[in-house]
Write a structure and sequence with these properties.
This protein has 93 residues and is mostly helical. Helix content is 72%, strand content 0%. It has helices spanning 3-7, 11-34, 41-64, 72-78, 83-89.
């Protein structure tokens, strides 16, 4: 399933798809271990489907959290000066 089709789904539908894909992965692993399935490439495909769904859910979660997590640039600006900067300033605290 393509990511564009997954993005059109609601969160509840995505969670349902994630459960379906996990069940598919479990069954596929079982078939491979018992020798019923020889094509192991399906394991990778199933894992990627799950990852796609989780990625889209996480993107939506981060989009809904407006301003609660600082940006990378804000975090670096608020950090204490490094020891290299202290040496340049000539003052230690």
């Amino acid at each position: 399933m393509k990511a564009s089709a997954l993005r059109d789904m609601t969160d509840a539908e995505l969670q349902q798809k994630e459960r379906e894909f996990k069940k598919e992965l479990f069954n596929f692993r079982f078939q491979v271990s018992t020798g019923q399935q020889l094509n192991t490439a399906g394991l990778t495909a199933a894992k990627r489907k799950i990852a796609r769904v989780k990625t889209i859910l996480r993107e939506r979660q981060l989009k809904n959290q407006t301003g609660s997590a600082p940006n990378k640039t804000e975090a670096t600006l608020t950090q204490a000066p490094s020891s290299q900067q202290e040496k340049q300033d000539g003052s230690k605290t």
